[in-house]
Amino acid sequence: MQKASGSQTKIKAFRLETSLILGLERVARRLHVSENMYVTQILTAALRVESLIPALGRIALGSETFASIMSTTNPDSLEMDGFALGRKNYSMVREILESIGCQMTFIQFLVYILAEGGEWFTVEGNATESSDRLTLRHQYGEKWSIFLKSYISGAYEVLSSGKLQIDVKGNILKIRFPKQVTT
After folding, report:
1. Do 81 and 68 touch, CB atoms closer than 8 A?
2. N or C: which end of the chain has fewer CB within 10 A?
3. Distance of alpha carbon 49 from its chain centroid, rounded?
4. Contact predicate 170/133, CB 8 Å
5. Which residues does residue 166 pair with via DSSP β-bridges, in sequence order?
6. Domains in the chain: how many in total?
7. What is the pairing mode between strands 165-169 and 172-176?
8. Is residue 12 part of a domain?
9. Other CB atoms within 10 A of residue 140 CB
10. Residue at 105 is within a domain
């Protein structure tokens, strides 16, 4: 099969949950595109982002920076530096992705860039765009928790005037998002 643009297509079938199919139909209808076009757009964007994740995940924090964080004795300095680095890195990642026509939500940044790509923490449960809460777990201690809390707060401030509520207990961070949409 060949599209009018000259690129070849191939038919492929997938088994999907009923709720996912219903959601796909609803969103495609709302966007006034075919389901096939919507799936193609989403997969194209995901594949573009996927190829960048290994590089982006490592951009944010090198081993020297990590060692500096872990050896810091001043928690106020750690918070200020984390906040500034979060703002800087999130802005940079968004700019890189937007330059190739990709959008990235804040949840995607946390899950794909920091958790999966950077291995900064693990995300407990199923993080979706409609999640109003996330729980993050790491293995690096109290200083890393302080840094993460401020880093994530700084990154979130780039896209929203709302504040995240982040509760820290040891190696666990519980994030509650404001009621507004996170993009």
Report:
1. no
2. N
3. 11
4. no
5. 175
6. 1
7. antiparallel
8. no
9. 15
10. yes
What is this structure's pTM? 0.68
Q: What are the structure tokens assigned to 154, written together?
A: 């700084």
- Three-class DSSP category at 133: strand
Examine residue 182 and state whether it is found in any structural domain, yes or no. no
| Enclosing domain of residue 85 | 60-176
The full length of the chain comes to: 183
pLDDT in tens, 58-94: 444 667 777 888 888 898 999 999 999 899 889 888 8
For 94, residues 6+ apart whose C-beta sits below 8 A from its C-beta are: 104, 158, 159
**Residue 160 in domain:** yes
> In 4-34, which positions are buried (b, 16+ CB within 10 angstroms) versus exposed (e)?
eeeeeeeeeeeeeeeeeeeeeeeebeeeeee
Q: Tokens 């939500």 identify what position?
A: 105
